[in-house]
Design brief:
six-stranded parallel sheet; binds 5,10-Methenyltetrahydrofolate; 296 residues; Rossmann fold; alpha/beta; three-stranded parallel sheet; binds NADPH dihydro-nicotinamide-adenine-dinucleotide phosphate; 2 domains
């Protein structure tokens, strides 16, 4: 058996086209332009690449992009002041603070200082609570992108056994909430899980968000299952730097029914959902109708 490859890159392009169309209409009919502010503290090269790519795609869909690059030794006070300023700026509808932050900064405090209505990452404690209780919220971009691909592939997810490997606040936990919201039977696995291979083998939907290159082996995958690989790991192989996921793709693709590749899977969907969330935040801020199909 050879799995269907779920093309996240192509799907993301479609989502961005939908966003762009809605943005054009907003500008024409309402004279408003959605704006996204991205804050990067420090000079982590990978983060710089992501931030540049987000900025480029933001402009491509017709939104305003505001980039704030601060030195690694920025004080909490300076960062909180910037966030206060962005919270008050009517041209900014979405705010993203790139994680991880340098160690001397309290990420929880920083994230929770963002206006929840502008928290396009969905990491603010009030958005987390709203999502957990099934109320309208800002939904974290990576899990939202995964859910969109799963719904597109399966239609209804009701009754399916979903296993999420990883319990981080930014991927694993919100992913599990979304799958539960779609009536999956959800298991969350982590580093203390006993017999992870057999837990994974029970999954109709297997989401890997571990941060360990190719840890999930082919024989951990139930035949015909759908595998969503969130992992982004840079490794050296054959003298070259390569990007691989948390799943042994070559082996899993011979067993799974469908699988997302890395690169070209979840990553591009994450950025597309960030743009979708910014548009949603803008529409909510102005009490305008929200675009359909771009949030849960
Ligand atoms: N494509 C995208 O857009 C994005 C990709 N990512 C990628 O996704 C991956 C996960 O990110 P993130 O959630 O932030 O990572 P974290 O490091 O915050 O969390 C990793 C989770 O995996 C669990 N884990 C670690 N080792 C094992 C193991 N051997 N067996 C079982 N579980 C294990 C940890 O368990 P425990 O809690 O017990 O320590 C933890 O819950 C990374 O590769 C990251 O780069 C992240 C965000 C966006
Ligand atoms: N506040 C915050 N929000 C985030 O959403 C956030 C963050 N911090 N910190 C870092 C992680 C990681 N992340 C990725 C986004 C896109 C790709 C992506 O587009 N990847 C491409 C490949 C890119 C490449 O070649 O390096 C792909 O998978 O095809 C990857 C990773 C968002 N994150």
């Amino acid at each position: 058996m050879t799995a269907t490859i779920i093309d996240g890159k192509a799907f993301a392009a479609k989502v961005r086209a939908q966003v762009a169309e809605h943005v054009a209409r907003l500008r024409e009919e309402q004279g408003v332009q959605p704006g996204l502010a991205v804050v990067l503290v420090g000079e982590d090269p990978a983060s710089q690449v992501y931030v540049a790519s987000k900025g480029k795609q933001t402009v491509e869909v017709g939104m305003a992009s505001f980039e704030h690059k601060l030195p690694a030794d920025t004080s909490e006070e300076v960062l909180l002041n910037l966030i206060r300023q962005l919270n008050a700026d009517p041209n900014v509808h979405g705010i993203l603070v790139q994680l991880p932050l340098p160690g001397h900064l309290n990420s929880e405090l920083v994230i929770n200082s963002i206006d929840p209505a502008k928290d396009v990452d969905g990491f603010h404690i009030s958005n987390v609570g709203l999502l957990g209780t099934g109320q309208k919220s800002m939904v974290p971009c990576t899990p939202l992108g995964c859910l969109m691909m799963l719904r597109d592939h399966h239609g209804s997810l009701a009754g399916m056994n979903a296993v999420v490997v990883g319990r981080s606040n930014i991927v694993g936990k919100p992913m599990a909430q979304l799958l539960l919201g779609d009536s999956c039977t959800v298991t969350i696995a982590h580093s203390r899980t006993r017999d992870l291979p057999s837990v994974c083998r029970g999954a109709d939907i297997l989401v890997a968000a571990v941060g360990r290159p190719e840890m999930i082996k082919g024989d951990w995958v139930k035949p015909g299952a759908t595998v969503i690989d969130v992992g982004i790991n840079r490794i050296e192989r054959d003298g070259k730097t390569r990007l691989v996921g948390d799943v042994d793709f070559a082996a899993a693709a011979t067993v799974a029914g469908a699988i997302t590749p890395v690169p070209g899977g979840v990553g591009p969907m994450t950025i597309a959902c960030l743009l979708a969330n910014t548009l949603t935040a803008c529409c909510r801020a102005l009490a305008l109708p929200e675009p359909k199909g771009l949030t849960v």
